[in-house]
Amino acid sequence: MRAQFVLSEIGVGLRRNLTMTFAVIVSVALSLGLFGASLLMRDQVSTMKGYWYDKVNVSIFFCNKNDADSGANCAKGAATQQQKDDIKAELGRLPIVQKVTYESSDQAYKHYKEQFGDTPVAGLVTPDQLPESYRVKLKDPTKFTVIKSAFSERPGVMEVQDQRDTVEPLFNLLNGMNIAALVVMGLMLVVALMLIVNTVRVSAFSRRRETGIMRLVGASSFYIQMPFILEAAIAGLLGAAFACVLIVGGKYVLVNNWLAKKIQVINFIGWDSVVTVLPLVLLIGLLMPALAAFFALRKYLKV
Known about the structure:
2 domains; 4-stranded antiparallel beta sheet; FtsX_actino; membrane; 4 strands; FtsX_ECD; Alpha-Beta Plaits; cell cycle; 303 residues; 9 helices; alpha+beta; cell division
């Protein structure tokens, strides 16, 4: 009987405040959709970092005959074979070095042509203008400074370059977008909480006669509050379910059927990451409105 009464009160409350309940569902859906997207974007950035940082190298470029004015290290002209051999031997003794690959000027020019193809820039460079280099694969890419400090001032070395510098701006952009999404999500969450609190208070006010009678017959505070809390929880759960639909749809349409086909060099996150996020979204969507309603009603429905 009690359960039937609580369910009937929930139905009455949802029907009386249909417009505000719909606003709560939409705001919760948008805020939790942004929350889930932010979590997935964070995982995507971490995946991309692991993928690209594992592929980038540290490049030690040697002076050639055209680099006499490139700095003190190149003042004596092109790097000698002895200087190159000494550097390679020292690299081989460093525990952080995984692999050292030599790239000649001709090989560098070939890679340059592959990169720029038939663009006008491709014809501005000749093979003898591109320096020889050692491509150093590190066991830990974050140890780049060890290589730079050890070899950047060596005679015959024009420059020590970390290829992470070319991809770092992309990761900074993605992190910035993630932070922006979290800020918008926070604002939407505040709006959702305010709507939940106002909806519960309006519902409690519209049923003040019923709650007054329940007080007189000795009903507990929790029993009186239960219909209002469940109303908020149901609205929040519907919003969370809609947020899950948005997340799954975004993954399927935006990532799988568009980005993955347009940008094939990126290893996008899989469905396992999405499945991990969805239960958290549903749990927050259920508990957040229920707790907000509980604390909003404490001073209105005390026995």
